[in-house]
Amino acid sequence: MKFSTKHKNILKEVYYFAKNKKVKLYLVGGVLRDMVLGREKQNPDFDFAIKRGAINFGRSLAKEMRAGFVVLDKEHGACRIVKKLEGKFCTLDFTDFRGKDLEDDLLHRDFTINSLALELEKVFSGGDLNNSLIDLYGARIDLKKKAVKAIGKKSFSEDPLRILRAFSFASILGFKIEKETLKLAKLERDKISGTSGERIRDELFKIFDSQNTFSFLDALDKLKILEIIFPEIKKMRGIGKGAYHHLDVWQHTLETVRQLEIIIDEHKKNEEVQNYLNEIISSERRRFALIKLGAFLHDIGKPKAMRRLKKKIIFHGHERIGLGLTEDIAKRLKLSNDEINSLRLMVLCHLRPGYLADTAAPTARAKFRFFRDCRHEAVSTLLISLADQRATKGPLTTKASRVQHEKVVSGLIREHYRKKKNKKAPRFLNGNDIMKQFKLEPSKLIGEILSEIEELQAIGKVKGRPDAFKAAGVFIKSKQK
Description:
Elements: H1 5-20, E1 26-28, H2 30-37, E2 45-50, H3 54-65, E3 68-73, E4 78-85, E5 88-96, H4 102-107, E6 117-119, H5 129-132, H6 139-145, E7 147-148, H7 155-158, H8 161-173, E8 176-177, H9 179-188, H10 197-208, H11 213-222, H12 226-229, H13 249-266, H14 271-277, E9 280-282, E10 285-286, H15 287-297, H16 302-305, E11 307-309, E12 312-314, H17 318-332, H18 337-349, H19 352-357, H20 364-374, H21 378-390, H22 399-421, H23 431-438, H24 444-458, H25 465-480
Parallel strand pairs: 2-5, 7-8
Antiparallel strand pairs: 1-2, 1-6, 3-4, 4-5, 9-10, 11-12
Helix pairs in contact: 1-3, 8-10, 10-15, 11-13, 13-15, 13-21, 15-18, 15-21, 17-18, 18-21, 21-22, 24-25
């Protein structure tokens, strides 16, 4: 067990500063856990425990390092330094002991696997770090057992978010949550409702960013924890099972997430799709996680849209109702505008690939409009549609319709990347050309004309300026009727 050269260089500056100030620092938590497991994060973060004075120490060190500084919790003496190194951000958190001594402090941590400690000076003593690790609560035993175990019965009452963290750690590390910890989570689950949206978001996205999101959502659902975070799902239970669906709306939603993970795995050798899924949308959160949230929310509007037509249950307009609910949820989780816009497109457009698949060969115009309207989330929407269709196995869902859906949607994904390689053709006309030719004033109509010409150009019906002017004239006449 040893620190990498990169990590050691970061710690060296902290160590010498602490030594000059005659302050004893302890490394605690995640970085030590990851070292025992042989994991190294791209963006390292280090947690330090100090007897007292963490905020003043951190503020002085930040000035020395010329790094960013923020107070995290004035009452409990917690602060953070953020330093950019080689294009990556490194965070250093400093916290006062949560008790009279280090033993007390470690007892107030969340899980046994995060209760390791190491005197900072030991990093530079030249000795075996394995022998210097302070392990008072069986961290190494539970790491070996691959178990997430609450360090004490008060762990979740001290911070209810730890309930969600148990699942996020299990998903990230591939661990199992110990039985007594699950019982404690069930007992304390209602307290999660008082946790801030930002903190819930961060743990949720760790689960959505894992390779096995479905199983952890399912486990959270069985403990009735998920509906505390998303109360909207209560109304999804027990409705919508019919001729096309073998599951109720809620179970269909979970199955859609499961199928999406299978589909993503099927595309693991497709470099273009993988690059797309790995794009950072906001604050290190990837589209890989966001698309799963999109699948999770795709039918959120069905309970409000549900109507009975004779003996048939219909959900007309559920995508538009879902759009509003998705925005509410996204804002509650404090997602960025970019993430909200992406989710809006996924939910609003998730039925459109199915409509395209209803015809043997979708027209060029229909495909153009789909890609135009879905914009940067076209592939996300297509993948969700595939998952949605695979999760639908009612008696009226035929093998032929499933095959047709897969064929059309997979073809659209290929077409998207094929066209992306081609340079977009320049416009034949601009707004000034239109206004001059047809003696028009600036208005919304000019944009509509240009959009119509762009569509006709894309499908090969406009091949030059004469065609473009002719198409503009036809469009203007249609608007004057």
